[in-house]
Amino acid sequence: MTTLPSRLVDTAKEPFVSLTGILDAAALRARLAKLCEDDPDGDGLKVRPRILAELKTAVQEGRAAIRAMLFEDNFGTLCARRLAALQDELIRILYDLAVTHVGEPGDGAGDERLSVLAVGGYGRGTLAPGSDIDLLFLLPQRETAVGERIAEYILYLLWDLGFKVGHASRSVDECIALSKEDFTIRTSILERWRIAGSVRLAADLETRFDTEVVQGTSREFIAAKMAEREARHAKSGNTRYLVEPNVKEGKGGLRDLNTLFWIAKYHYRVDTSEALVKAGVFSRREQALFAKAEDFLWAVRCHMHFETGKAEERLSFDLQPTIADRLGYNLHPGLQAVERFMKHYFLIAKDVGDLTRIFCAALEEEEAKEAPGLRGFVRSLRHRAKSIPGTLDFHIDNNRINAVSRDVFRKDPVNILRIFRLAAMHDLEYHPDALKLIRRSLRLIGADLQKDPHANALFLDVLTDRRNPELHLRRMNEAGVLGRFVPEFGKIVAMMQFNMYHHYTVDEHLLRTIAELSRLERGELAEELPLSTEIVRTLRDRRLLYVALFLHDIAKGRPEDHSLAGAKVARHLCPRFGLDARETELVAWLVEDHLVMSMTAQQRDLSDRKTIIDFAERVRTLERLKLLAIVTVCDIRAVGPGVWNGWKGQLLRTLYLETEPTLSGGFTLTSREERIAIARRRLDARLEDWEEGERKAYLDLHYPNYYLNVPIDEQVADADFIRRVGTGEPLATEVTTDRFRQVTRIKVLAPDHPRLVSQLAGACAGSDANIADSQIFTLTDGRALDVMTISQSFENEEDELRRAARICENIRKLLRGETMTSHLLGTKRAARRADLFNVEPKITVDNSLSNRVTVIEVEGLDRTGLLADITGAISDLSLDIRSAHISTYGEKIIDAFYVTDLIGSKVTSEARIARIERRLKSVLESAEGEVSSSTVMASESAFGIQAP
To answer: Which GO terms describe its biological process (predicted)?
Structure first.
């Protein structure tokens, strides 16, 4: 009978890692033996501190040597094996010490008291610097007191040495029984390695585990491991393209490779990727890919642990530049060194996904061949090939498209595109064998195929598929076809942008925008996005939207502005895709101006008529407005979780509806006045339980821009809040949390004042709260309603509400003059990841954006207290903030302030404008922040708020 090997070794030539230069085990043993000889009582208690000191020194020196070797050679898998080998030798030494001090002559055969086994990842012969040490103390059926004492001795010394130890003490019977019940325990014991102690006990476990647990249970083990993998991916976002990935648990990470190892060892009874080649599962190239991916991921993980001094698994922004430097990545035109490193990381993660699919395909085929009896007959019927109308090169295999032979792509390279078109037409998934064959045929995609009109027509059909274009484009991308067929797309595959705003790689973002457009077209977002859904239904040529979204960020990573460069790419690619000259220019314009609508909506005052006129002149036609609106919505929604919200949707809706009559010659379904009237009536209807006079008084409390810019549900919530407060309370606050968007909203109702915005921002900064959005509305009775949206800091809602309560208390103290912003901030003014990101400060003072006020636009690196500093400085400059438009893009802020001087006029003096620019630039360049005494000292009389 063939039994399972005891330990994973990826090369038979090097079963163990040499400790040369890491640990002189013989010398250490000699020193410890000398210490034991000096022990008068023989129990080790008196010499234990000296033994511990010797061991600590050996561990520290050994790990330092391994760290230096990693920095020298960057061999990740070898580093993990060196750490495991060092740990092995340490535990053998501890075992021998334990036998010396707690064992007694004649207390059972010396080799039968227990066996010390490494299990889990450690049992596979690899450890990261911060990994737990997972041990199994295997005891005989009749437990001996000395065996338990040996186990305790080893554990206590490991704990004192600072290791995190996961351990269990069990008999062979208990191991077998628990393995049958629990797949986690079964997997842990599957990967085991005898470090010290009884050979017989370890061999007994090996034999019985193989015969009583493993044999005949491959199918259920594989199902459990794949289900576990799916659950893990779902928890981490179900994408391998998160810009701060989890190297261990994330999709495409080390755990996915571990899963392949577990299944290979369990099902094929192998321990090496070489054996998988012999079994016909992997080709030589795929075996090399496996080794490359494993080594890279281990190198990244080991560097992360060494750098942080702990088991850090998330490759955060803080770590990425350091690891990139450690691994030798350099600056490239258009890409930082860290961006090149992360692109390599995501390509490796993609390779891991490819290997998983190949492996699963082999398992599936094997299961189909081995299925017995009636179940096998039914399965064979389901697997029987079904023809696809219109083609002899492909057929349906188990509801998935597959090639009829291995030469279908060689005979006709256009088939590489045709297979995706057929899958889209017939709503089919792809057989893993077909994807494997496609990957092995990529060399056939060259200039001739790229220029082929039929191939481009097939690609455009896939891109604009009415069912699920994202699925087929994603499969095309994963197979490597998309980057080969459209080389410009290939340049942004796996490319990340080193900032805190974008959640995904560029190619993943583009595919997600296509998915958003498809959902919009199918009517799935009609309730959430009624206007966008209606616009899509009126468009003459839907193809333009899909092509524009596919290309809108395709020029990222180039030295020049990606929007301008992208327009050039569009003018080159669109004719190839079959678009005429007019369509090409329209797509090029959409790519070049794809950010204009979102920037206008979020950073300009939409109640200012000049804003609408300028935007309309930029757009020029109603058709372009409709197309741009849809591109903008899909783009924002695909940036990442929580980026899109109702407030942004309302701003875009308002901008669209304000611009539409300007472009259509004054005709629109509803004029501005009518929409204000409709909004007032809608709110009036929602306040039906109010007295009529009370309703009318409340509706007159708001200016028109409030009704145009705030969603109806939020208007109702505001009404309830203001009604509860009444007119007698000069200051009131209200807090609500949004777990889905991970934000907390704080409403403040207070007397309006030029320094109000600064004080509210300072109150938030005093509690380390990051303001993601701020909406300020002046009421007709002289009060102001400010709604601040802050990013959540706590998972627990009670903790988040307590933080919000502290912010509200800070607001009260500031507005009553009981404290100053500088006191609240204290030592909190350190720049927020300022050493990681470089955002050039930019101040623009513009009098052309409004006929009534001056617009100050501030762009720079975000930090704690920045908004308070900026608004405070504006007030110190004797300027009155009429409206503020706060936009945070990860680490970057772009804020626009509509201001006048104290007599309500524009700021036109060149000298004064220069002074404004100098002062605000100094605020942005100051890491510690600066708030003048006049700004932080809010007197009671200034705000008209008296302390109770």
So the answer is: regulation of nitrogen utilization
